[in-house]
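User: Um, any thoughts?
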Amino acid sequence: MEEMNKNKKKKRSILKAIIVTLIVFVLIIGLIGGTVFAIYINKAKQGLPNIDIYTFSPDQASQIFDYKGNLITNVYATENRIYVKLSEISPIAIKAVLAQEDKRFYEHGALDYKGILRAIYVAIISRGRTIEGASTITQQLARTMFLTQERTIDRKIKEALLATELEKRFTKDQILEMYLNQVYFGSGAYGIEQASLTYFGKHAKDLDLAEGAMLAGIIQAPSEYNPYANFDYAKTAQKEVLDKMLSYKMISQDEYNKAINEEIKLTNKPVEKDNMGYVIDYVKDFVASKFGSTMLYAGGLKIYTTVIPELQKAATQAIDEVLNKAENDNIFPKGKKDSKGVIQPQAALTAINANTGAILAMVGGRDYDNTKYNRTVALKQPGSSFKIFDYTSAILYGSITPSSIILSENYTIDNWTPHEWEGKYFGYLSVREALNQSSNVCAVKTALSVGLERVIFTARKFGITTPLNPYPSIAIGSFEIKQLEMANAYATLGNGGIYHEPYIVTKILSSDGRVLYEHQDQSYRAIPEDVAYIMNNLFSYVMAHKSNAKISGLPSAGKTGSTDNWRDAWFDGYTPNISVSVWVGPDSDEITFPDVMNAGARFPAMIWRKFMLVAMNYFPKNDFAKPQNITFKNAYDDTGYLTDKPSDGKTIIKYAYHNGFLPGTDIRDLGFVVVRVVKDSGLLAPPTCPLDLTEERVFIKGTEPTQYDPRYETVTQTLSISTDKDTYKVGEPINISVDASQFDLSNKTLNLIIDNLPVANLTNEQNGFYNYSILALRTGDMKIEAYLKDSNGNVVAYGEKIITINP
């Protein structure tokens, strides 16, 4: 018996030792495991991203709006999101999301331990057939903001740690706001605001119960429950959300019934607005140049533009209809493409508000998806459409009048001979008819008569920024320019000679509504109003003879343009309110259409007319305003002589002239020039030469003297010229002051000359000072000269100053 007791004690001792050993082993393993786990957790914490309420800024899409404030498109890099505050979200939609994703959100911490246990229990009793989500909204936010979607233990641990950190640093409302703006709802929509706009065309604050429940149902499977792709599935998910809300007593039975039976009206599925592509790219380039690409694509900017979508659509349709018909009629080969796979010929259209410079429509090609190259800002030869600057300069400086006669003939200048587009010369033409016939010879002669530098100066005042050199061929558009600038040049005429810098963005707001940019009008008078009116009158005559462009009852003006071999064709037409430039041609010399007469009066004119039939309805149909200093006089069409007599068998035309410069019946109107020379030398008389030593002489144009008599190019008395500063930037105003206080200024006139071009005759002085302001229009040195003359035209004093203009 005693032996038996000993054995029992021994067994108990062994068992006890085993148990103790096991306990110690488990404790050691637990300690080691706990240590390893603690090290792992600490390492995981160190690898977590920094979370700060002040640096939290999810990418937000920027929005581009049209002239009425309607959305054109969202601009974003990867996530199309419009951030809104929690207070700007419908409360019932918030309840729907909570019911679906985390009904105890305001009751638990970062992790919902009850939810985890419940999910395990449901999975066990259903034998895995039912799986309940156990992730809280905070965990989901941590995952979507900072982690990947991979299903690993490492990711789950980091998710829990991040969720815990989020709960420490943010309030529940802040977390919910971030979540609702972060979560993906399908169809490229991130956040509830963009989802609401995408599916229902309304803001998140306006969502009702049925709509909010449908959005909440999308979250778990955005592709499967996308209402555009699977509306029935989306309705099923919506019902599941509503069932939960009813069971959680978030809504009443009546609210449930109403929502279940509500007909959901989806907005039309978003489509790529390809007719807006060129506008969008142009706006994006502008914004990026001011604020950078990051702000553009992720800063949530609100960008308001001048674009009229209906006109953008009309421009696209006009181009397509005219050129598609030309292909169907076998005028252009159908489907011809260049080596880049781009359809040819191409076309471009720019429409500008003549009164403001606002860009109304911009189509840079036939098919944006095929070619995103924007031809409205590409360099193209303008051909005869450049003649606006030849004739405007000549009218401005008085080398011609509308009735002046110019001879179209075989004419050579600097070893270059301009040819007429018809292959034959026209003979004697009035200025008006020379424009209508688009005579190249007459344009070259006109430009030379006024001076090529003056032609370039006028082009600069009209907004042409591309390189222009004073070669005779410039008169017929041999240098490349941008269509946008040409459209605005003709707009300057339509606006009575006032230039407005073209613009497309009116205002840019930050994501929180602060004004970051607002357009400021940059305008100035480029030419006198009477000169603009005379040019408008001439171009109205041209328009009246272009059957493919003119529209009955619409006062309008315009000019065609074509280049050698019919490569580039233009039509620039305008009214007092809108200017529209159209270009048609191949992108490069790689493609040619030798058998097609691609004239400006053909396809571009047709496109212009189709577009204007729509655009004219957006503006008054008023005529060009006639200034008070404009006089209409009759003149013989063949000589340009004024006449008050009734027709005696000759053609008599009524021309517009500005007062003080009416053509007479002298020899100057027949291809001759009258210049003042020094009597004894025959050289040109400089302004400083006494009048009694000079006389006027008649020369055939081109044979007159060009050198001043050096004996009279200086004066003893000097004028002091001052400016605000000595260096300016292009576009800055230059305030000029000429000090003539030492002279008796009665019956005196101050002639102001800029870079050899007369700009003003000043008679009004203030305490002996003559003041004048101009804009810096080109880079380089600018020479300012002032001549003080008496009533007989004798120079009393002279002064000059050179300033510098930088880009």
